[in-house]
Amino acid sequence: MKNIIFFGDSLTAGHGLPAVASFPALLQLRLDEQQLDYKAYNYGVSGETSAGGRQRLPTVLTRHPVEVFVLALGANDGIRGIAVRETTHNLQFIIDAVRRQYPEAQIVLAGLEFPFDLGPLGGHRLAHYATEFKALFRTLADKNSLPFIPFLLQGVMGRRELNLPDGVHPNAAGQKILAENVWQVLKPLL
């Protein structure tokens, strides 16, 4: 059995849903259906920032050998307005640490963006932040030659029927779309 580590925040954890409804659990079902010898591990923690992920990474990396590592952190950094350079530094640290410990592992990076144009709400500073935030993921993927999921929440964000009442976290139907978004990039690696 080869291991796929899904390392993220509440979007990965499946916040507000049974564990079996999270996109990593849904991908495990797909792996089983296609008789692929992979075990999906969900290391999503609600509220996690890139700095928090950086701190808990060593513990996760000692639990299982890693063949594929899906990095899906940054949403909480963006919500909190953490400096883009800090988020970039933390994500690069995570990428480097996985590569050091598991040099043969495939690392997949999931991109994020803000749900709407922040310009009219908060002036050009917020719009500039949103643009920089979105770009940091593509820049990291290119710099590190990583398979890249351009926007984890593609097709889900902003659609009321695919989110919990908080309007932020995908519901079970939304998690199915996240699973598909990830699968499109993950499948060719397996």
From TrEMBL:
Q: Which domain of life is it from?
A: Bacteria
Output the InterPro entries linked to this UniProt entry: Ester_Hydrolysis_Enzymes, Lipase_GDSL_AS, SGNH_hydro, SGNH_hydro_sf
Q: Which Pfam families match?
A: Lipase_GDSL_2
Official protein name in the record: Arylesterase
Residue stretches making up the SGNH hydrolase-type esterase domain: 6-177
